[in-house]
């Protein structure tokens, strides 16, 4: 189980009334495997009509979250640094 809780630090740079793509900064906390770490990343917000799409890609080092594979197939088949992608789509209500 994992959980990310954060906020967009430059949300005022996004014009939700005009179609476009906006680069934003996100600060928050990622909890994975019972360990919580501060995260600062970038995300892309796309405004298109009545939809708002938020996409981001995080790089997480598994050892930072006490996830270690010492032997066997997981130790050779799973990367030590993983990519976590997120895409959320919201529809604006009138």
UniProtKB/TrEMBL annotation:
UniProt-listed InterPro entries: Lipid/polyisoprenoid-bd_YceI, TTHA0802/YceI-like_sf
Pfam families, per database record: YceI
Residue stretches making up the Lipid/polyisoprenoid-binding YceI-like domain: 8-85
Protein name in UniProt: Lipid/polyisoprenoid-binding YceI-like domain-containing protein
Organism, scientific name: hydrothermal vent metagenome
């Amino acid at each position: 189980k994992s959980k990310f809780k954060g906020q967009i630090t430059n949300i005022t740079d996004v014009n939700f009334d005009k179609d476009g793509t906006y680069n934003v900064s996100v600060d928050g906390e990622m909890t994975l495997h019972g360990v919580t770490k501060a995260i600062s990343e970038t995300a892309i917000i796309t405004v298109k009509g009545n939809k708002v799409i938020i996409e981001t890609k995080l790089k997480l080092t598994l050892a930072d979250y006490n996830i270690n594979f010492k032997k066997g197939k997981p130790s050779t088949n799973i990367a030590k640094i993983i990519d976590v992608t997120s895409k959320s789509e919201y529809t604006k209500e009138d």
